[in-house]
Design a protein that fits this description.
The chain is an all-alpha fold. It is 59% helix and 0% strand. The longest helix is centred in the N-terminal third of the chain and has 21 residues, at 65-85.
């Protein structure tokens, strides 16, 4: 046995009895703990307070993203409910960043209401509620106010072009105002232009505005007249040349109006460009020809009275022809001559016509004579009654001429008594001349002074003057484009 233990590859140490082994292990453990423990402090020395470490920060201690989304959705629901109470469809503002609180949205709605916009206006353009009062609305309104836009004009301006609330004063508005001033629109007229046509605040300078102005100048509109054209009719800045302006000009040229005459019409009455070519102009030209106007007279009518292109003409012509036929015995053909010589007769009211007809018949003219006088000189129906009465009394009491002379030359009533009729009659009387009314009146002052140098009046000259008297009067009236152009009220009167 001893031999086997000596030659074993892993000799086993001799085993100790179990109780002795356990006591030995306890002694070793006690010695180890006593050597590693710190020395015991004095009982009288204070113990240090235990330090508290801050709790570690964590994202999970804050509101979760889900909670934030829920809160945002709840606020947006409140804003949408407020919009619905205003009559605005919240769906139209779904993609727009709106205020997070109802109070801010209420401030915007109340501010827009203070400008004169109703709930219907907000419903028509809900994007206005996306504008900040301080960042968008106030700067724009301050700028318009400094230009001179009237406070009472703002509601209509904002209804027609609410996009101005989104505009930048520096980038969008100021360049347009500078462009208008560069076209000779006076500073005092700029706010009136913006009030009448606020849409131009959204136009690009190099677009429709510049091309329309260039075309007008090209057809003969005076460069210095452009400012007045824009002031009276700013809508021209939004008209396309190829679709509106050029076809209008070419159609007038097609009926015989010379291009320079078209340019003069546009200078004085630019709003004619707003008469629809297909809806108004062409049908009115056709109506004139249907009621006896000759094609060669169309240019003269348009030149004298451009407004005829924009009237509800057919109905007016039907009514006027019936009036002239019943009260003055004017035939269909003669009615066309009346319109050719004074197209404003289309607008004469029944009261004005009958008043003048009754005056002439009271003077002793037969109705057939009145008819002839009106056809030759339709202006009789629109003259001032007091002036007609004074002229007739002078003709009857001082000149002592026959009524037939007035039938032959009814334009006598259109001349001023003190400025023309009386001084010329007295000069002729002193010379001892006997002449017709046409020879006496239907000439310029220079021509009349030259005639007064004659010793006698040639019979040939008298006959020529009588035959051309009324034609010359009509041509003179046609050459003065604005002589009767302001005649709109059917009961107004005028004197030549």
């Amino acid at each position: 046995m001893m031999k086997s233990l000596l030659f074993s590859p892993h000799p086993t140490p001799p085993l100790l009895p179990a109780p002795r082994l356990r006591s030995l292990l306890r002694l070793r453990a006690a010695a180890s703990s006593s050597s590693s423990a710190p020395p015991r402090a004095d009982r009288r020395s204070p113990r240090p307070a235990p330090s508290r470490r801050p709790p570690p920060s964590s994202l999970y201690a804050r509101p979760s993203l889900l909670d934030m989304e829920r809160e945002r959705a709840a606020r947006r629901a409140d804003v949408d409910a407020f919009l619905a109470s205003l009559g605005v469809d919240p769906g139209e503002l779904a993609g727009l960043e709106l205020p997070v609180t109802v109070d801010v949205m209420r401030e915007r709605a109340e501010f827009l209401a203070s400008l004169g916009l109703a709930r219907e206006d907000l419903a028509a353009y809900p994007l206005a509620l996306g504008c900040s009062v301080r960042k968008n609305m106030v700067p724009v309104l301050d700028y318009l106010g400094k230009l001179g836009v009237r406070r009472d004009a703002l509601p209509d301006l904002l209804r027609r072009y609410p996009q101005v609330l989104h505009a930048s004063v520096v980038v969008d508005l100021a360049p347009v105002v500078k462009y208008l001033q560069g076209l000779d629109v006076r500073p005092n007229d700029v706010p009136r232009v913006l009030e009448r046509y606020p849409e131009l605040l959204g136009f690009k300078l190099e677009g429709t505005m510049s091309t329309s102005i260039a075309y007008l100048v090209g057809i003969g509109v005076g460069r210095r007249q452009i400012g007045g054209v824009i002031t009276r009719f700013p809508e021209v800045l939004g008209m396309r040349v190829g679709k509106i302006i050029k076809p209008f000009v070419e159609h007038l040229e097609g009926i015989g109006v010379q291009r320079f005459s078209v340019a003069r019409i546009i200078e004085k009455k630019p709003y004619v460009l707003g008469f629809g070519l297909e809806d108004k102009v062409k049908p009115n030209i056709e109506a004139l020809m249907e009621f006896g106007v000759r094609k060669e007279a169309l240019a003269s009518i348009v030149t004298q009275y451009p407004d005829v292109l924009g009237l509800e003409l057919r109905d007016k012509l039907v009514a006027q022809q019936s009036l002239f036929e019943s009260s003055i015995l004017v035939s269909h053909e003669d009615f066309g001559r009346v319109i050719e010589r004074m197209p404003q007769a289309i607008n004469l009211g029944r009261t004005a016509v009958l008043k003048h007809v009754n005056f002439l018949t009271a003077c002793g003219f037969m109705l057939s004579q009145v008819s002839k006088m009106v056809v030759a000189c339709p202006q009789l129906l629109a003259l001032n009654m007091d002036i007609m009465r004074m002229n007739f009394e002078y003709f009857k009491n001082e000149m002592e001429r026959d009524l037939q002379e007035l039938v032959e030359f009814p334009a006598f009533f259109t001349y001023g008594l003190e400025s023309t009729v009386r001084p010329r009659h007295e000069m002729v009387s002193r010379k001892g001349f006997t002449c017709s009314l046409a020879w006496l009146l239907n000439c310029s002052d220079a021509r009349f002074d030259e005639r007064m140098k004659y010793d006698t009046i040639g019979v040939e000259e008298m006959e020529a003057e009588e035959s051309s008297g009324m034609n010359a009067f009509v041509e003179e009236a046609e050459s003065e484009e604005e002589e009767y152009s302001d005649y709109d009220d059917s009961d107004d009167e005028f004197v030549r």
